[in-house]
UniProtKB/TrEMBL annotation:
This is ISXO2-like transposase domain-containing protein. GO terms for biological process: DNA transposition. Pfam families: DDE_Tnp_IS1. GO terms for molecular function: DNA binding; transposase activity. It comes from Chroococcidiopsis cubana SAG 39.79. InterPro entries: Transposase_27. It comes from the Bacteria.
Length: 130
């Protein structure tokens, strides 16, 4: 279970253990291959790490992002940066899959946890009858 120590708006900029956590993904547009992923605060350093670890993996010089201004501050001038929601379906599907996979630790969000719990009750009932 993930416990948020305090809301993001109450956190100081250097408090890394409390507040919101963001997932940054770099996807290949045509194949949907995840080139890089980073988890952290929604700061310029997260974007710097994401861009640095993505560079050189493809020859693509286009970055499509949401409207956050941090990308414009970090991306170099030789990269074509555009803000668009046109090609976000694959990214949102990847984010959804990632959240579902990490949601296994949260019993109430994972449908299999309920099934396993039901099986456990079933087996406990069977042992009591024997």
């Amino acid at each position: 279970m993930v416990v948020c120590g305090k809301k993001q708006r109450h956190c100081l900029p250097d408090e890394l253990e409390a507040g919101d956590c963001w997932i940054g993904l770099s996807l290949a547009q045509l194949s949907g291959l995840i080139l890089c992923g980073r988890v952290g605060k929604h700061t310029d350093s997260l974007v710097i790490e994401l861009v640095a670890s993505t560079e050189g993996k493809t020859e693509c010089k286009e970055w499509g992002t949401d409207g956050w201004s941090g990308y414009g501050r970090v991306l170099s001038s030789d990269v074509d940066h555009y803000i668009s929601k046109v090609l976000t379906q694959r990214l949102e599907r990847t984010n959804s899959t990632l959240r579902q996979q990490t949601g296994r630790w949260h019993r109430r969000q994972n449908k299999f946890a309920r099934v396993v719990g039901a099986d456990k009750d079933h087996f406990a009932l069977g042992h009591q009858l024997l």
